Amino acid sequence: MVCMITYDLNAPGKNYDDIIKTIKDCSTGVWCTFWKSSYLIKTNKSVDDIQSELTPFLDSNDTLLVIEVKKNYQGWLAKEDWNFVNDMFD
Known about the structure:
By secondary structure, the chain is α+β, with helices and mostly antiparallel strands. It is built from 3 helices and 4 strands. The chain has helices at 16-26, 47-54, 79-88, and strands spanning 2-8, 31-35, 38-42, 63-69. Strands 2-3-1-4 form a 4-stranded antiparallel sheet, sandwiched between helices. Strand 2 (31-35) and strand 3 (38-42) form a beta hairpin. The radius of gyration is 13 Å and the shape is globular. It starts with a strand and ends with a helix. The relative contact order is 0.27.
């Protein structure tokens, strides 16, 4: 499955390294980030599992969204980025 994870850590002094490492660890090793605070990952975990693993890094004023992505998408990316995204579904 492919998931989009996007988040905002709104308190000053947040440790982004821990949440980024956890996002990458939730993946099968296939992930990309073309955006600030958003990742597209290939994973064997459910969206509930991913959310549970990321929750310890969040405060009440932070935001998190984990969505399963289907092979029905559009956007504006460089050709090599589209190739990478398309390969995630193979």
